UniProtKB/TrEMBL annotation:
The keyword Glycosyltransferase applies. GO terms for cellular component: membrane. This is Hydroxyproline O-arabinosyltransferase-like domain-containing protein. Residues 65-341 form the Hydroxyproline O-arabinosyltransferase-like domain. GO terms for molecular function: glycosyltransferase activity. InterPro entries: HPAT-like, HPAT/SRGT1-like. The keyword Transferase applies. It is found in: Membrane. Its main location: membrane.
Amino acid sequence: MGRASPLLLVLLALGFFLATYNLITMVVHNKAASGKWVMDGLDWFDPITGKPEELNRVQATNVKYHVILTATDAAYSKWQCRIMYYWYKKVRNMDGSDMGGFTRVLHSGSPDDLMAEIPTVVVDSLPDGLDRGYIVLNRPWAFVQWLEKATIDEEYVLMAEPDHIFVNPLPNLAHGDHPAAFPFFYIKPAENEKILRKYYPEEKGPVTNIDPIGNSPVIIKKSILEKIAPTWMNISLTMKDDPETDKAFGWVLEMYAYAVASALHGVRHILHKDFMLQPPWDLEVGRKYIIHYTYGCDYNMKGELTYGKIGEWRFDKRSYLRGPPPRNLSLPPQGVPESVVCLWKYCTYRPFTIPGCLVHHFFVVLLFTSVN
């Protein structure tokens, strides 16, 4: 192997400098033109009937939000919390972010070994047997307890989960008293009207007043959440006690409970489809803000999805109940979507300091090229 000539090295350095300069110039130009760091292509659906000028009157004075993460002391929960908190710290102070502080609400009743690493408030779990094996019922109860003792500077909170990873700086998507939420395709109030009328009576209005959401991710005023949370908890427990509702809603029961509780309090959410992406179904990261890795990602070595069948290459959080994915987890096959490559990088190469997923993908492409 011969040594590269000094002229070649200078030309390469100049090329990288010009590419970086052009990228920064483009971003700054967009900021100056639009007054925001994100592009105008972020589609969002607003179910609120109020006019924009009416919404502007209820703008808050403090747009920062406090990130709230509910968790258990199980190893499976711990490694997800550590990864989530790591990437929160990386994007918190980036341009375009409205992130404030961070609190892990530990609903196991006693401190654990992450107390010194992650800001944590310990609350009680539900009494034995009350959750009937559905551990998610502890989530609304944890929020009720945290809200009773919370002293934070931010006016808003972001309700998040351990399997969330911040991939872009997240602004406050709420609009005054109107929270922001992600629309889930499987939350269908209109198709479940018969069941929902048990909890949302006809005199309250049509079931379409119930937003197709869960409680996470949601950015909401703390003062509004204080009103919703006790109702959310009570409805969750009541739904679980009803066999018909329990059978119909299954593992998303608590999500329906939050949506119903919000509607009972007259709270409508602004629905942002770019709030979050969910590999392997969402293929690109783009301008989305959070990766939610709830689904397993199974592929053959041709890069073809084999969902429903364990792949030759796979990433599934449930494969790591006792600890985090290994840092030397094999590379995804060529042909897998960017979102899965990003997920692999964020979960296995935690020391990386650049959270921009496109940068990560660039290095993965280089690595694939060098290997092949």
